Amino acid sequence: MASGLAASALSASLSAGASGNVISVGTLYANTGSFATSSMPEYAGLQFWVKQVNAAGGMYVAPLKKKEHVKLVSYNDQSDPATATTLYNQLLTQNKVNVFVADFGSVLTAPAVTIAKDQKHLLFDITGSGTSFFSSGPNPYVALTSLPVSAVWPKPVVGLLSSLKIKRVAILYCQNDFDQAQAAAIKGFLSSKHLQPVYFQGVPTTQTDYSTIVQAIKGSNPQAVLEFGYPNNDIAFLNQLKSTNTHFNFVLTPFPGQLPTLFRQDVGAKALGWQYTYAVPPIMRVNKVNLGLGLNSFLAKFAPGKQSTVNFLNVAGYNAGLAIQAAFAHATSMSQLGIRAGLTAVSGKLQTLEGTFALNKAGAQVGELLPVAQMVPHGAGFQFKIVYPATNAQKAFVNGTPKYPAPKA
Amino acid sequence: MRLFEYALVSGVLYGLFYGFIGVGLNLLFGVMRLVNLAHGDLVVWGGYLAYSLTTSAHVNPLWAIPLSIPLALVGGLILYLITVPRLRRAEDTETSSLILFFGVSQVLVALATMKYGTNQVTLPELGNPVMIFGQPYAASLVASAALAVPALALFYYYLYRTRLGLATRAVMANEEEAVASGVRVRRVATSAFVIGIAFAAAAGPLATFMLGGINPTTGGGLTITAFTIIIIGSLGNPLGTAAGGILYGLASSLTQAYAAPWTGMVPYALLLAVVLLRPSGLFGRRVRVA
Fold first, then answer.
1. CB-based contact B136 A242, cutoff 8 Å
2. What is the pLDDT of residues A14-48, one digit of tens each?
3. In chain B, what residues touch A272 (CB-CB under 8 Å)?
4. Mutation test of the interface with chain A: which of B256, B258, B266, choosing the one with the most A Cβ atoms within 10 A?
5. With bands split at pLDDT 50, 70 and 90, how would you rate the model's confidence at A4?
6. What is the pTM of this model?
7. Which pLDDT does position A369 carry in this prediction?
């Protein structure tokens, strides 16, 4: 059975090679819908990697002992998981891609994870960090490339809350894998300290009206408010705070660090002042790498003259490409498991612009942990200051101390 | 108790805005039985007009409301002339209109994506929070409700105090009898169509505040909300539309306060209850009398 599957994977790769002598990478993107904001920059990062690799004559494919060009096969899923399901299947059954890459986030990655397991085809999951994808034991067919699994994200948040002696925590989260996992992790931490969140509620991911919710949180008199949502949720929540002059001493949302330009435009620099978010590249600048470009070089080449427009999702798309490159460079065969073996070989050793790439047996990323940053007002805008590291190695990136309680804007 | 008060006031304010959203659709569906799946997209385009005005001319986004009305009247008339005469000749107008306006919706989404990109856009807040019963409400929320009231009153005046409105209600009640009575149905339909489109576009700037921002695909959800409101309130009745909106707003707001995880479901459970218990809507009887 296993050898039959390996043979079928080999024949798919050979046919791809025969048609164009390339390694084909399938992916989806969303150019409309609620995930377009995040999906398109991620896709642009992946496209950039393809361009870079091909300009260098292709990527080294160990089983073939030569370089091959990369062909990106992509479809637009319009942010719709049902459409994504069809298109992921199409990539594998019609396009017969060598490996495939998931679209942004847990919602659009979920169907790909199921398909990868069912069809035993290696999925490079860029940002679908939902805990449920990695909770059913060892899985060689999914590899999370750019973000730690959701439940791990809040680790430094927990540390920061402890260091600030914050006990009354309000947690608002959207009802999806990504956000629920973070909320549950924080709640678990509080429980271990015999504390309960003063507010703990989930809302639909489509939620955009936070008027009464904000008042309910205010009524719980929290010392810290953690809102876990997707960009549109974070924007609506933060705007609600702004429009009602509601002040909390500590507010953390996940996405201002990933999409600072969008948040400056939609929420405003002043309203973001003193709030917290996860510090992702390019806030955290990793330049010591052993594959691909360091962050400064990436910024210069990806958007010459417009480096301030580059966001984390561009980096994440590029980083997924680097993971694919590393997998093929160390693959033991062209079978799916052979390519996955390449990833295992580099796990913990691969240093990219996102930090140390390390996978556990379930395919979850456990290396690229995210520190916490505070948005410190600076002139008419703000600067990200990394105030709490996720690992000892990240202490070198810390460049500020948390200001608590947050001054009123 | 303070939270309950806040939820009540917020629900009413949001509800009036939702009523405004429902007015345009009420006219199109009520008079011509056109299932306008592009209704929410027209609202979104009204929002984009406000965004363009704010970013390019740096004026108060509410100026987009009076500006959107003539633009929507002209655009609505063109759309009417292209589509509606053919639709009304179709065997099943409702189904055909559903398909046609689905297409219109997709075109509007694509055009918005090309023009404004996929990112969420927001408008600058209108001012400091307004204190009601000692609690802060966003100025835009209060302004939206304040503008929705005259819009709903205008809708009432049109339907109940003008000859065209009388004819419109006659067509809503029974088109064949209206024709037999000498009502010029085509004129009524044209008016209802363009006025409905204008109401949708005029609600756009407010929707951008109320929804925390818009993107090209925001319209789909708005269309569903608008249908829910007019079905709850009953077709053709401005009071019904206002009541449907307020009920929807209250259901949403109280759920946010006391059972946030159910926020997405409760308003639609309310819709189910109304449809099962009172299929003609809360104000259905009055429509039939009209």
1. no
2. 334 334 479 999 999 998 887 888 899 999 999 99
3. none
4. B256
5. very low
6. 0.85
7. 86
Instruction: Determine the residue of chain B that is closest to A211 in CA distance.
Output: B10
The domains located in chain A, with CATH, are 2-149+285-357 (3.40.50.2300), 152-280+371-397 (3.40.50.2300)
Query: Left if phi > 0, otherwise alpha if psi is -120 to 50, otherwise beta: which for A23?
Result: beta
Q: Taking a C-beta distance cutoff of 8 angstroms, is the pair B116, B48 a contact?
A: yes
> Does the CB of A211 have a partner CB in chain B at under 8 Å?
yes
What are the C-alpha distances in Å from B11 to residues A197, A201, B224?
Answer: 27, 19, 18
Q: Do A211 and B135 touch (CB under 8 A)?
A: no
Q: What is the pLDDT of residues B262-276, one digit of tens each?
A: 988 888 898 899 889
The tokens describing A24, both together, are 């084909």
Contact (Cβ atoms closer than 8 angstroms) between residue B264 and residue B244: no
- Local structure of residue B56 (DSSP, 8 states): I
| Cβ–Cβ contact B120 with A under 8 A | yes
Taking the C-alpha atoms of residue A4 and residue A78, their distance in angstroms, rounded to an integer, is 35
Is A266 in Cβ contact with B121 (below 8 Å)?
Answer: yes
Structural domains of chain B, with CATH? 2-289 (1.10.3470)
- Select from B3, B138, B141 the Cβ nearest to the Cβ of A216: B3
The pLDDT value recorded for residue B236 is: 67
| Mean pLDDT (chain A, rounded) | 91
Best mutation target, B3, B119, B215, B266, to test chain A (most A CBs within 10 A): B119
DSSP per-residue letters across A97-116: -SEEE--SHHHHHHHHHHHH
What pLDDT, in 10s, does the model give residues A229-282? 999 999 999 999 999 999 999 999 999 998 899 999 999 999 999 999 999 999
The torsion region of residue B236 among left (phi > 0), alpha (psi -120 to 50) and beta comes to: left
Least confident of A3-17, A345-359, B32-46: A3-17
Tokens encoding B286? 């009055």
Q: Which residues of A touch B225 (CB under 8 A)?
A: none
Q: How far apart are CA A141 and CA A146, in angstroms?
A: 16
Give the closest of A175, A204, A219 to B3, CB-based: A219
In this prediction, residues A318-327 reach a mean pLDDT of: 98
Nearest CB to A207; choose among B141, B217, B263? B263
pLDDT at B98 over 50: yes
Tell me if chain A has a CB within 8 Å of the CB of B252: yes
Which is more confident, B141 or B275? B141
pLDDT at B280: 82
Q: Is B253 on the interface with A (CB under 8 A)?
A: yes
A204/B contact by beta carbon, under 8 A:
yes
C-alpha radius of gyration, chain B, whole number: 19
Burial of residue B206 (number of CB atoms within 10 Å: 0-12, 13-18, 19+): buried
Q: For chain A, give the percent of residues with pLDDT over 90.
A: 76
Euclidean distance between CA atoms A8 and A2, whole angstroms? 10
- Would you tell me which residues 94-133 of chain A have a C-beta closer than 8 angstroms to some C-beta of chain B? none
